[in-house]
Design brief:
The protein is an alpha+beta fold. The protein has helices spanning 12-23, 40-45, 66-76, 87-102, 105-110, 128-145, 156-170, 177-188, 190-201; strands at 2-5, 29-32, 55-58, 61-64. It has two domains: 2-80, 3-Layer(aba) Sandwich (Glutaredoxin), CATH 3.40.30; 87-194, Up-down Bundle (Glutathione S-transferase Yfyf (Class Pi), Chain A, domain 2). Helix content is 51%, strand content 8%.
């Protein structure tokens, strides 16, 4: 399989399936296509009809959109348990993951994903509703599971929130103790740390990309 991604510094959507596959030791070839270049859309179109990353190529199948990719992997590797095994927990995990996939546009537009940027004292008040809802999700899930991840062990729901963890670091979001512990656990996850380390040394500058 091949996972087509964008710049690790910026591409929050690429991060999600990449960190999932790395964490669960799902073998894949990585193909990074720099974004916002004159030939970016042309090159991405070879793998994704949406002209967007990420895209997963598995033999003659091409799957695009982060959630679709991760659901495909869940079906292909059922033994990996990419979702919680318990049906009720799995339903909630899918709910919070899809809420992240389709929502929080104010936060994403205001607080772009840039691993090389730190903004102390950033005014994120216009995205406060989004930020508060995310922390409510984290607190409720962590309270029920006991942590360190949303449903105990790392799964697709955590992968969906990985870029948010990075945004909270970048934009100096004030969090309580439970959310702070979750952020630490996510940042120390070896697969996520590997992505962050790579993003920190990328040299290509580009416009804001979320």
């Amino acid at each position: 399989m091949m996972l087509v991604i964008g710049n690790k510094r910026y591409s929050s959507w690429s991060l999600r399936p990449w960190v999932l596959m790395k964490h669960f030791n799902i073998p894949f070839e990585e193909k990074l296509i720099p974004l916002d270049q004159p030939d970016s859309e042309e090159n991405i179109l070879k793998y994704s009809p949406s002209k967007k990353v990420p895209a997963l190529v598995d033999a003659d199948i091409s799957v695009w959109e982060s959630m679709a990719i991760m659901e495909y992997l869940n079906e292909k590797y059922p033994e990996k348990q990419l979702w919680p095994a318990d049906a009720k927990k799995r339903a909630i995990a899918r709910s919070v993951a899809n809420e992240m996939h389709s929502g929080f546009s104010t936060m994403r537009n205001l607080m772009s994903h840039d691993l090389q940027k730190i903004v102390p004292g950033f005014d994120y008040s216009t995205a406060k509703d989004d930020v508060n809802r995310i922390m409510d999700i984290w607190r409720e899930c962590l309270h029920k599971s006991g942590g360190p991840f949303l449903f105990g062990s790392f799964n697709i729901a955590d992968a969906m929130y990985a870029p948010v963890v990075n945004r909270f670091i970048t934009y100096d979001v004030k969090v309580d103790t439970d959310c702070a512990k979750y952020i630490i656990a996510m940042r120390e996850l070896p697969a996520h740390k590997a992505w962050i380390d790579a993003g920190l040394v990328e040299k290509l500058e580009m416009p804001r990309y979320t």
